[in-house]
């Protein structure tokens, strides 16, 4: 298999505390992640799991109170954590495109769509204004913006929310990057637009060979728009594998809970399955499984030792209970 | 026989907004946007009616009108047969405690400077000043237990609670005045998936315990399918289809309902491309002739451009506002 | 109902939980400023008991003691540690009494500003409509004058109308009133802006739905959420009012000569400046600078410390 485009290995990111006597908060605690060329990878987790921080850590664009404790981020054979800000600017936008949740914050409200697209293209590529204009128009056509010539002359507020998000996708695509990171690309959109934008994103990536890292809290949304899926919980990846297999054969209790808790997984009027409790405070988790407190299968070892990622079933998960030898499982004993 | 609790008929509410294409302030024209544009809806006692629609369809305006936070321009809202939409604030007071609202964003719905206990005790003490404070505190603790909040959190401030806990406190506050009718405006959309299930279960459990009537606004079709007795679909300030849950999910009639169902993400079934609408959700434009979906509807024809369709019964308890269906073209 | 108890506790509880004290301890500049301000305030409050002379008592003044230099000077008199002014008043006592007057005027004038501004701004923002237009119109009108100009105008006219003798008995109150009324628009505008932002938050709607009256919603729900910027303005205004009072007294239309204030002292010492008696103006001037600097530094810190973004989120 080809060498991965992006490799994140054992990444630890920590937030500096405002108060000297309080410990720093480790938000990412040993994240491993690989994205191959042209692959669509989904990163799913609840708020506070650290998924947005992971995205910004990849392009080294986080706030000043965060810092990388250890770990590597390798992209196209370059170690991104070692680059200076000028080299990083070359990577951002040109090789890695970003799409954020709210298209309105992504676009400058006082510039027309054309001005913004041209600015983006001209700052990275050595072509004439005329050529850049043609490129921009082509990109807008690619994202199916109706009447691109007129839309180009308009300001962001004159576009509908769906068109705005398409414009940001066009902007991310403008420099033909190798990877696009989309952080909750559809959560500011309506249901009918949501499906449309997801379809567009995965279609564009398939056609242009761009790798896609979609970050979302909604497993159903990425279920049909990604090749591989990673489930993130409290700053760690707890389960990963091909999306179809992960959903049909979830191993980790947290993933199982997430799927079982979906309202259309139980018949109407019935009590829904619910994961008890809430995401733990990150300071509390040093030497234990981060999900132990909410897990119905938790045992002593879960509170004493953090589990490691290991193959289970069709893919990988990090869980002590799964890692036990099969003969300890009462069900298996019966069949024997 | 079903008993009507809230009866909304021909409701209108318009907001004025600067005209989009008048950039010069001295030539600015103001145009009226009809947020609610002739809406009829009946809510029966003890049921859960879910109103489904996209942002900008007038859901929040409808919630405010029903709660009496705003006054309608025309039309009426009846509560147990009495018109309450144009009552004076004093006369309204009698109804305030019978209906309550749970807001979408649990972060802004709680005063950041008040503790959980204060938030819950305040409504009781305000309406019954002669009551002993310890009784109100007892009631508040009971309510906290009912919504599944540990009493040890009672002295916390909102920013010290998680999103799910905050939404529980919101629900508890609404229930402190013993309402019989609860409006919830997108109660789940600000919450995480694993917390959504907790809140859904809580709402169902409270409805059973206290015989509540729910009017729930949501765009999450999976959640709606789970909890609704009846579903109304709203588009541009009007109801375009209303039916029981089974009928609307098994046999959606209106093109907009069909498109919504097709677009709603499902974990095991891939999205369906058959019922796509054309174009985007439009920016709201001043009222015009014809059906509000005419520009996006793939099946629009002549009549749709001239006349606005009215809700008509297709089968028992299933009403649709669409010319194509109502005129039997299909 | 017992909301006041909650509000009273609230401020203290918030300070404790958010570790503002801890922040104060680590911030050396603010710590020193606070200590200086506290010391100056204590000195001012205790002035009648600790100052060696009573500068308001003409019996204790002797023209023979006039123009004596401070203690480090060779010709100093041990009775007058910081020397005396042109009429033989002890400078140390005058400064202590002046500090007292300045702080007193500053505090009460700001209290007047705060009350008027907050009430008008709150009503303006909450009710909107004609109340809003009227209040904001008044604020705009008032802002076209410099508050100092207005004060000079009013004080000069009253002085002329009442005659110097009557004027001096009333002047402290007049000063407070004029400086208090002249600067309300700042508060009103700030409160109005915060109220407009808070008014549409869901918790205010929830309070309406729960059937609370407007007055209750304004005072117990909206007002506490608009206080942080007001405290910053108020603390800066204390410094400004003290300065304005000093300027007015310097011009001779502020506090009477017999009732010394820092500004009055600087003003009366000014004429001796060129004849080499620099301390008569400079020493009260130093006290004024010290006072204003510490207040401004604390106000500056308060702005950051009360910013909700800086409030610790952890339980």
Keywords:
heterotrimer; A: 336 residues; alpha/beta; Rossmann fold; 22% strand; globular; disordered C terminus; B: 330 residues; eight-stranded mixed β-sheet; four-stranded antiparallel β-sheet; 32% helix
Summarize the model shown.
The complex is a heterotrimer of chains A (336), B (330) and C (315). Chain A is of the alpha/beta class and 336 residues long.
Count of runs of 4 or more consecutive helical residues of chain C: 13
Cα distance spanning the termini of chain C: 28 Å
Shape of chain B: globular
Number of strands of chain C: 0
Q: What share of residues of chain C is helical? A: over 70%
Query: Into which percentage range does the β-strand content of chain B fall?
Result: 15-25%
Rg value of chain B: 21 Å
What would you say this structure looks like, in words?
The complex is a heterotrimer of chains A (336), B (330) and C (315). Chain A is 34% helix and 22% strand. Chain A is of the alpha/beta class. Chain A has a domain at 38-48 and 88-95 and 177-265 and 278-335: P-loop containing nucleotide triphosphate hydrolases (Rossmann fold, 3-Layer(aba) Sandwich). In chain A, the strands form 2 sheets. An 8-stranded mixed beta sheet of chain A has the order 6-7-8-3-9-10-12-11, with helices on both faces. A 4-stranded antiparallel beta sheet of chain A has the order 2-1-4-5, with helices on one face. In chain A, β9 and β10 form a beta hairpin. The longest helix of chain A has 18 residues, at 191-208. Chain A is globular. Chain B is α/β, with parallel strands linked by helices and 330 residues long. In chain B, α3 (116-127) packs across α4 and α5 (163-175) packs parallel to α6. Chain B has one domain (4-18, 33-253): Rossmann fold, CATH 3.40.50.300. In chain B, 48% of the residues are buried. Chain B has 11 helices and 12 strands. Chain B has an 8-stranded mixed beta sheet with strand order 6-7-8-3-9-10-12-11, with helices on both faces. A 4-stranded antiparallel beta sheet of chain B has the order 2-1-4-5. Chain B starts with a strand and ends with a helix. Chain C is an all-alpha fold and 315 residues long. Chain C has one domain (40-57, 80-310): MetI-like (MetI-like fold). Helices cover 72% and strands 0% of the residues of chain C. Chain C is built from 13 helices and no strands. Chain C is elongated and about 75 Å long. Chain C starts with a helix and ends in a 10-residue tail after the last helix. At the A-B interface, α7, α8, α9 and α11 of A face α5, α6, α7 and α9 of B.
């Amino acid at each position: 298999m080809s060498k991965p485009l992006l490799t994140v290995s054992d990444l630890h990111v920590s937030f500096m505390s405002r108060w000297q006597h309080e410990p720093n908060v480790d938000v990412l605690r040993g994240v491993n992640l690989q994205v191959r060329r042209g692959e669509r990878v989904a990163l799913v987790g609840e708020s506070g799991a650290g998924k947005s921080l992971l995205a910004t850590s990849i392009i080294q664009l986080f706030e000043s109170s965060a810092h990388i404790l250890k770990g590597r981020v390798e992209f196209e054979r370059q170690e991104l954590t070692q680059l200076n800000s000028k080299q990083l600017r070359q990577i951002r936008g040109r090789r890695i495109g970003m799409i954020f949740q709210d298209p309105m914050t992504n676009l400058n409200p006082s510039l027309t769509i054309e001005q913004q697209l041209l600015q983006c293209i001209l700052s990275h590529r050595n072509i004439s204004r005329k050529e850049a204009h043609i490129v921009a128009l082509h990109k807008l056509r690619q994202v199916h913006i109706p009447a691109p010539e007129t839309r180009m002359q308009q300001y962001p507020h004159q576009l509908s929310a769906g068109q705005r998000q398409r414009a940001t996708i066009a902007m991310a695509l403008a420099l033909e990057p190798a990877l696009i990171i989309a952080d909750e690309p559809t959560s500011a959109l309506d249901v009918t637009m949501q499906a449309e934008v997801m379809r567009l994103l995965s279609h564009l990536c398939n056609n242009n060979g761009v790798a896609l890292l979609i970050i979302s809290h909604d497993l159903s949304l990425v279920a049909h728009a990604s090749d591989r899926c990673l489930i993130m919980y409290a700053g760690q990846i707890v389960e990963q594998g091909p999306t179809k297999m992960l959903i049909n054969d979830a191993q980790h209790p947290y993933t199982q809970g997430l799927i079982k808790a979906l309202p259309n997984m139980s018949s109407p009027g019935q009590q829904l399955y619910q994961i008890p409790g809430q995401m733990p405070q990150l300071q509390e988790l040093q030497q234990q499984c981060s999900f132990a407190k909410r897990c119905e299968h938790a045992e002593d070892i879960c509170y004493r030792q953090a589990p490691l990622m290991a193959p289970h079933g069709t893919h990988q998960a990090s869980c002590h209970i799964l890692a036990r030898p099969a003969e300890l499982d009462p069900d298996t004993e019966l069949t024997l | 026989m079903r008993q009507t609790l809230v009866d909304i008929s021909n409701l209108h509410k318009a907001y004025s907004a600067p005209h989009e294409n008048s950039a010069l302030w001295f030539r600015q024209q103001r145009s009226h946007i009809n947020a609610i544009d002739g809406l009829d809806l009946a809510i029966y006692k003890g049921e859960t009616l879910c109103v489904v629609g996209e942002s900008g369809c007038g859901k929040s305006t409808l919630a405010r009108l029903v709660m009496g936070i705003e006054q309608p321009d025309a039309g009426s809202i009846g509560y147990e047969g009495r018109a309450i939409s144009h009552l004076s604030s004093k006369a309204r007071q009698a109804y305030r405690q019978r209906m309550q609202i749970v807001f979408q964003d649990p972060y802004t719905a709680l005063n950041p400077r008040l503790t959980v206990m204060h938030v819950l005790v305040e409504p009781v003490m305000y309406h019954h000043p002669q009551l002993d404070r310890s009784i109100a505190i007892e009631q508040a603790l009971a309510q906290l237990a009912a919504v599944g909040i540990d009493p040890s959190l009672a002295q916390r401030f909102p920013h010290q609670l998680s999103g799910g806990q905050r939404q529980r406190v919101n629900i508890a506050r609404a229930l402190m005045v013993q309402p019989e009718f609860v409006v919830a405006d997108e109660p789940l959309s600000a919450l995480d998936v694993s917390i959504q299930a907790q809140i859904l279960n809580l709402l169902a459990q409270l409805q059973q315990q206290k015989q509540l009537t729910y009017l729930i606004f949501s765009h999450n079709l999976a959640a709606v399918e789970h909890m609704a007795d009846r579903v109304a679909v709203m588009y541009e300030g009007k109801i375009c289809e209303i039916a029981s849950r089974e009928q609307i999910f098994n046999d959606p009639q209106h093109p907009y309902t069909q498109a919504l169902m097709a677009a709603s993400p499902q974990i095991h079934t891939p999205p369906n491309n058959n019922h796509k609408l054309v174009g985007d959700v439009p920016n709201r434009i001043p009222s015009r002739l014809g059906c509000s979906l005419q520009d996006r509807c793939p099946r629009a024809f002549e009549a749709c451009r001239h006349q606005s369709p009215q809700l008509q019964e297709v089968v028992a308890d299933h009403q649709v506002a669409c010319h194509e269906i109502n005129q039997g073209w299909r | 109902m017992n909301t006041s108890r909650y509000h009273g506790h609230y401020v203290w509880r918030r300070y404790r939980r958010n570790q503002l004290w801890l922040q104060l301890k680590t911030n050396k500049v603010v710590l020193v400023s606070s200590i200086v301000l506290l010391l100056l305030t204590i000195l001012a409050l205790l002035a009648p008991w600790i100052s060696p002379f009573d500068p308001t008592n003409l019996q204790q003044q002797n023209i023979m003691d006039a123009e004596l230099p401070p203690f480090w000077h060779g010709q100093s008199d041990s009775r007058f540690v910081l020397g005396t002014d042109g009429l033989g008043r002890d400078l140390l006592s005058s400064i202590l009494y002046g500090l007292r007057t300045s702080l007193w005027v500053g505090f009460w004038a700001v209290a007047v500003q705060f009350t008027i501004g907050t009430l008008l701004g709150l009503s303006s923002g909450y009710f909107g409509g004609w109340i809003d237009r009227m209040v904001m119109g008044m604020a705009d009108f008032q802002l076209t004058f410099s508050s100092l100009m207005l004060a000079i105008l009013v004080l000069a006219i009253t002085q002329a109308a009442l005659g110097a003798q009557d004027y001096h008995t009333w002047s402290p109150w007049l000063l407070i009133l004029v400086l208090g009324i002249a600067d309300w628009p700042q508060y009103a505008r700030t409160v109005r802006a915060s109220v407009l932002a808070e008014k549409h938050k869901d918790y205010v709607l929830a309070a309406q739905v729960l059937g609370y009256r407007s007055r209750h919603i304004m005072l117990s729900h909206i007002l506490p959420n608009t206080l942080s910027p007001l405290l910053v303005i108020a603390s800066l205004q204390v410094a400004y009012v003290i300065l304005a009072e000093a300027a007015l007294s310097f011009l001779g239309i502020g506090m009477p000569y017999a009732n010394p204030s820092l500004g009055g002292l600087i003003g009366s010492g000014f004429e001796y400046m060129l004849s080499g008696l620099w301390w008569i103006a400079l020493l009260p001037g130093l006290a004024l600078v010290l006072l204003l600097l510490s207040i401004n530094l604390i106000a500056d810190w308060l702005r950051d410390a009360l910013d909700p973004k800086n409030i610790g989120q952890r339980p």
